[in-house]
Specification:
The protein is an alpha/beta fold. It is built from 10 helices and 7 strands. Helix content is about 35%, strand content about 20%. Strands 1, 2, 3, 4, 5, 6 and 7 form a 7-stranded mixed beta sheet that branches.
Length: about 230
């Protein structure tokens, strides 16, 4: 190949490489980089706030709220019982999470001694009975109750397959089902799978085996789309 042909080919290659970022290609980052503030603060306990429901599906809020406990506990965090927390929040007229998501969370640290508060915003909830599927869009925001810094933030726009009901701990299932009516069982299954899927990227807490050992693992995308089967 002649010199000027080589130069032309190299120039075209470099030009194409320069276009890659604009085509949606991004460099992966570690969990340590993506969730640096969480690793720095090392929260031990989480208060689950009642979901902020932007849809007209009342059952969505109950299903999501009742099924957040399990994935957080599995990740190694102490989680205040959502049912008991809701009762206390209601008694203090503090069960409207939308009021607190942008406000000071220090009262929750002082009253509950919670290190962090988890907010969820339900933006879409569409149940397709014939296909045993639920289309959901939820944003998850974990904030420090000490300084309001965001420790973890991720959103999911997914289709959840509810056809095959997975086995789970009987005591936990009883706890979840007791929070909603039997008629909402598919909603509970859909919410549980969506919650477990999106929170799987949350770094392990103190009570999990990979606590502070998962920093080098590649973090998942901040915005997730796809199909959730389990």
């Amino acid at each position: 190949m002649k010199p000027y042909h080589k130069a032309l080919a190299l120039g075209l290659f470099m030009g194409l490489m320069g276009l890659l970022p604009s085509c949606g290609v991004s460099n992966p980052v570690s969990k340590g980089q993506a969730y640096a503030e969480l690793y720095s603060q090392k929260p031990l306990s989480i208060l689950v706030m009642p979901p902020i429901n932007k849809t007209n599906k009342v059952e969505a809020k109950e299903a999501v709220y009742a099924s957040l406990y399990h994935p957080l506990v599995e990740k190694g965090y102490y989680v205040f019982s959502p049912i008991l927390s809701q009762e206390l929040l209601q008694s203090e007229s503090a069960d409207d999470a939308e009021v607190f998501i942008d406000g000071s969370l220090k009262p929750f640290n002082q009253v509950y001694t919670a290190d962090a508060a988890l907010f969820t915003i339900i933006k879409k909830w569409r149940k397709i009975d014939l296909l045993a599927q639920i289309e959901v869009e939820i944003e998850y925001i974990l904030k420090s109750t000490k300084d309001n810094k965001v420790l973890f933030q991720r959103s999911a726009d997914v289709t959840v397959d509810c056809s095959a009901k997975v086995k789970t701990n009987i005591a936990l299932l009883d706890l979840v089902v007791s929070a909603v009516s039997t008629a909402l069982s598919d909603n509970v299954i859909g919410a549980r799978r969506a919650n477990m899927f999106i929170l799987s990227d949350l770094p392990d807490g103190k009570y999990a085996p990979n606590f502070e050992k998962d920093k080098e693992l590649i973090a998942g995308p901040k915005d997730v789309k796809g199909v959730v089967k389990k």
